[in-house]
Write a structure and sequence with these properties.
The protein has 91 residues and is mainly alpha-helical. The chain is 81% helix and 0% strand. Pfam families: Ribosomal_S20p.
Length: 91
């Protein structure tokens, strides 16, 4: 006799797939944030600006997909922009 999949089993599979996808997006955002901070500390303005754009794009994407909240994305972008401005606008 064939065994049936329960809806709970299917739900568990789906949530596991989503968890792994969400984890990948968060990891990418954290990596980009570290690269941005490193480029700011190395005083490389062009690289920092490029990394800031990439980070903002990744945070917006994560926010749009519901992986992080809209306010969390805005807060992180604001803090990174503030760091960039404090480092490079004094010159």
């Amino acid at each position: 006799m064939a065994t049936k999949q329960t809806s709970a089993q299917k739900r568990h599979r789906q949530s596991e797939d989503r968890r792994l996808r969400n984890k990948a997006v968060k990891s990418t955002a954290r990596t980009l944030a570290k690269k941005f901070v490193a480029s700011v500390h190395s005083k490389d303005s062009e690289l920092a600006q490029t990394n800031l754009r990439l980070l903002a794009k990744e945070l917006d994407t994560a926010s749009r997909k519901g992986i992080i909240s809209k306010n969390a994305a805005a807060r992180k972008k604001s803090r990174m922009q503030k760091l960039y401005n404090a480092t490079f606008s004094a010159k």
